[in-house]
Amino acid sequence: MPKIVCKCGNWISYSPIPNPAELLFISDVEYDAFTDKIEPDELYDKMKHILVCDQCERLWVYWNGFQSEPTCYSKETDTQGK
Fold first, then answer.
1. CA-to-CA distance for 12 and 21, rounded, in angstroms?
2. Residue 38 DSSP class
3. Which of 22, 32, 45, 61 has an alpha carbon within 20 to 30 A of 67's alpha carbon?
């Protein structure tokens, strides 16, 4: 069962289908390159995968597929009191 451990210590699985922890996205330019009828598998192959930690809400973005290490993003902390 493929999974990663978040920086907060929570385990995030990327094996369930459909996966409640996974988001998919595609750039506007890549999407516009599709013409006529879109094949779901072809569209899916172009999408980037993001896992969302349900504990701390960090985003783990797989820019180059699951074979590469993901990049972790976390919310900014408001240090100015705004």
1. 7
2. P
3. 32
Nearest to 10 by CA among 62, 61, 55: 55
Predicted local confidence at residue 1, as pLDDT = 59
- Nearby residues of 45 by Cβ (< 8 Å), 6 or more positions away: none
Above 60 in pLDDT, residue 82? Answer: no
CA–CA dist 4, 10 (Å, integer): 8
Give pLDDT tens digits for 8-66: 999 999 888 899 999 999 999 999 998 889 889 999 999 999 999 999 999 999 999 88
Q: Are strands 48-52 and 22-25 parallel, antiparallel or unpaired?
A: antiparallel
Q: Is residue 52 within 8 Å of residue 75, measured between CB atoms? A: no
